[in-house]
Amino acid sequence: MPILSDQDHRFFEQKGYIVKTDLLSSETISDFQGIYDRDLSGQHYRWHPYGYHQSANYDVLITSPNFDSIVREPNVLGAVEELMGGTTCFGEIGARHMKPYQGDLHRSWHRDRPHWLEHRYHMDYIQSMVYLTDVGPDTHCFSISPESVTDPVLAQNEDQINRGGIIDIHGPPGTICLFNVSVLHTATTRATALERKTVQTYYGHIERPPLANDSVVPPRLWKDGQDVETRSFYGNLNDVSRTYADAFGIDLPERYTAQ
Predict the structure, then answer these.
(1) What's this model's pTM, rounded to 2 decimal places?
(2) Contact 53, 189 (CB under 8 A)
(3) How far apart are CA 137 and CA 146, in angstroms?
(4) How many Å separate Cα 67 from the centre of its chain?
(5) How far is CA 190 from CA 29, 66, 134, 139, 142, in A?
């Protein structure tokens, strides 16, 4: 049975994103918060400054293997695959932390990837942003400038914002924003006494090039995964994962050694 409704798809087509608050149970949200907090406190040496007023760990699949349960949470992954239009692969994952802040409002608008016009939603990669804390007008948040697939892509950020406006995504823990990473977006940093915790996972088309070299995919997933689906999902290896595999004497799949 489909996870997303026709209305969800129409909204995504018109805006480039969708927000869902009903994909995760309270027990799952609590589990995810525990996985995140244990990594933040116990693996702090892998958390580094990232962007503006953030720290992040992009190797959480190595430091805390249970992050796989967030990446492949069935409802989230199902919704992702419905929007992507088929079987997807892992791109990268970043656990991010934003501390309380006293300063001016800050936004750094960007697109992570050019639009892929062959796709129904012009989407090469999709991101699932999971909020693990309450996010509202008095906290840091994720912001996006909505864009329809029928809109021409505007090269200047200011032109897109003037056309599409700015939507700040708010919600309780467990809120999930699924968005086309080609649509203009940013983290919004504002004066607040509250922290923000997010897990941000990118998913791609399995036949398309890897997204980036931020996350190392451990061989226990792409080589020794318990089933073909796991090995395939994590098997679109980026350069850094292949470099680490070579450094530790781990044989790469034939698709890479043949290159």
Answers:
(1) 0.96
(2) yes
(3) 19
(4) 13
(5) 25, 31, 15, 7, 11
Q: How far apart are CA 24 and CA 207, in angstroms?
A: 29
Alpha helices in 4-156 (DSSP H): 6-15, 26-42, 60-63, 68-71, 74-84
Q: Dig out the tokens for 29 from the structure.
A: 């949200």
Task: Report d(CA 61, CA 63) in Å as an integer.
Answer: 6
CA dihedral 237, 241, 244, 248 (to 10 degrees): -50
DSSP single-letter state for residue 112: S
d(CA 151, CA 126): 19
Q: Where are the beta strands (DSSP E) in 125-234?
A: 125-131, 141-144, 167-169, 176-180, 185-189, 196-205
Taking CA atoms, 176 is separated from 11, 42, 47, 80, 118, in Å, by 15, 25, 23, 11, 26
pLDDT tens readout for residues 110-160: 999 999 999 999 999 999 999 999 999 999 999 999 999 999 999 999 999
